[in-house]
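Human: Here is a favour to ask of a fellow structure person. Comparing notes only helps if you start from a blank page. Give me a protein, with the fold worked out from its sequence. Please set it down just below, with no commentary around it:

Assistant:
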Amino acid sequence: MTKKKGNALLIYGGGLMPIANQYIRAQADKLQETGFFEKVFVGFYSFEAMVNPKFIEEWSPKLKEESEAAFGGFFGTCRDVWLTDENLRNKTIKNLRAKNITWIFVGGGDGSARNCAEIAEDYANVGIGIAFLMPCTVDGIEGSLSLGIKPAVRVCCRIIEELASTCLNTRNSFEYPGLIVKFQGRNRDDIMASTLLKIDTGEVNFDRIKPLIIPIPANYSWDIKKIEALVNLQSNSQRPVLILLSEGASIAETELLKLFNRKMRTFEIGHLTQMNGHVSISDEDEIFQMLEYAYKPMCSAIEDGEPFALSYHANHSVRIEGINYYLKLNPKEGQKPTMAAKQEAVLKKYLL
């Protein structure tokens, strides 16, 4: 018989994304399946749940049923709750001990992974383990596959189709207009490049519109003079322009607008990529598959008792990493983002 290890707390630590709810539900079931814990708790509003115990609830059939009927943001998230603050950390330790919580499990983005790594030793010293179980982010992360990008790209493609159908079908002074679409992603180009790949392969439907596509990424070189000249070229006035702009690019939409001599509109697809309710059956299947392959490594790491992180790779490979794994690969400043070969190739194809 498995020896119980107290209670577990599972929280979602990243920015909101469509599949956060599905991930938390599936992971909570897996933690119960281990048989390691008397109770599995789920925290609402991310790390804040550890500060405010009213946001902690026991995982139960009733809560599962309620969450199954809700959108992706059901469990919520928070900003600027950094448990490196000694007063907050001491408060959380008191709260966790009151519920006999001996392990904290987190799914989230690079910021959540750093938070886990920075507090792990202090928690371990009082007998509380911490594990970063799943990268969940629409932005992407270094060192692992992650959940969240696919539904975000799906939303981007749908919105771009709608924007193009409206904005690029309205001619101005005998000329086609332009459209600047800004993507979420801070210093990453993953969403933009993945969307560009779907445009390039024809999965995005522009109907009769054949826009000139120009990406402006955050982490690749581009020439603003070439972009300005191409958009303003008289022979191109009879062609709509679609500029894809990464959030982390070194030029703002307002500055871009000043460069062009035709009508240009701008839109941000930021929080829209985090919209809830855009989860497909294949997205859910991917979650279940990743958790299934991670189950034995997760159990092994819990048995070992040290703080840990899990990383996911091609061919269902799951590795147990030290809790500092993502912190080192994804520093708050100076991160060196990479992306899949297909996305990088199509981005370079369109760069000016």
